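Need the bound structure for glutamine, inputs here:
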Amino acid sequence: VRAYALRIGQVEPKVKAYVTQVRDSALAQAEALDRKLKGWRKTQPMTGMPLALKDNLCTEGVPTTCSSRMLQHFVPPYDATVVARLRQQDYLLLGKTNLDEFAMGSSTENSAFGPSRNPWNLHCVPGGSSGGSAAAVAADECVAALGSDTGGSIRQPAAFCGVVGLKPTYGRVSRYGLVAFASSLDQIGPITKDVSDAAFLLGAIAGHDPLDSTSADVPVPDYMKALKKKDVKKLKIGMPREFFAEGVDPDVEQAVLAAVDELKALGGEIKEIQLPTTDAAVAVYYVLATAEASSNLARYDGVKFGLRAKETKDLLELYMKTRQEGFGPEVKRRIMLGTYALSSGYYDAYYGKAQAVRTLICQDFAAAFRDVDLIVTPVTPTPAFKLGEKSDDPLQMYLSDIFTISVNLAGLPAIALPCGFSTTNLPIGLQIIGRAFEEDTLLRAAHAYE
Ligand code: GLN
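Answer from helper R.:
Posting the output first, comments after.
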């Protein structure tokens, strides 16, 4: 903890990965743990691990802001289930990491507290929305971190920062205490330095939780065991033609194709496959995610949580002023888009249609997974972009999520891991997608490759 505290002191002024730091209490807890564990060697995987948590995960007694003015002073009275599980294992919390406000964005530039920076190049974004978590791991400001992924928010920042990010199957990890963005898509997962850390951390947080009705009652395998094989023999690996189309940066394409060659050398059978609905994924996502967000964010009305506007003459003005002052421009844009998509007269044309196409996307994946065990793609079309480059063009920003979004729509697990560098010296990520609840196969392939 001391080493990490020192490191945070050195680099945090430049990287700005954290919204809230609790280094002192981590140190006190570590000392207490040292006294408690003296001579006792049998600890649990996360015992004593200095971790960082994305600031949309509720932590009892520690502010949970979602990088929004709306929740700037919100201190949850309870822990998210993932946090409670880590606490049972005596993990150590170093702090809460920056994100795009309410996890809406791909660069952390939508944070009400200012952007985080990419440790590889401080002029570039770390990605988002779990940009603070990825930057903290990449800059050695923690051992590992948790993020959340609704449309790529774990994998894209992991790729931009040259670390490992795993989005579990929908339902694998409890969402209880994760501040909801789009409930049918959100999943919590690890951001780590390597694949074995991701396996450890997933094992620590996964499993059924009665407090989340969408959490799945499916046994959690020993993920560390999955790492023993160190090859991909007998695995069929699909390459979707649609993911290697125009618009992919040549450096990214080259690095991913080289990774595919390596998977072949490790014993994998490479097959070309088709996922024809890929081009609809971004449109479907931005209808469904904004629709769900508009409903989830209705609770921030100045009455129960967080900010309450002052000097309002009646209840309606209290609602209006609170939301006007509390939400940033991207959140407002999404609430409006989502409310429109759900409004009577437009519901069938937008929300209903998007749900129908979501089913087609799921069917595409189901058909592909009858032929192959894993699917490999780039994580992003380009390496990390410059701060400010896309921030006034929301559509450009949305399109950068093209390779990660369909995975959330289909509820599948996927991992992002480093597979090389661009000519501009920025990390490039490889995405491996698996069948539902087969994180072990994902981890095995990723570990064999890394
Ligand atoms: N970048 C996507 C968005 O802006 C995904 C965000 C996420 O996964 N939380 O919605």
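Comments: The pocket of glutamine is lined by residues 103-106, 129, 149-153, 181, 289, 401 (CB under 6 Å). The chain has one domain: 1-267+375-450.
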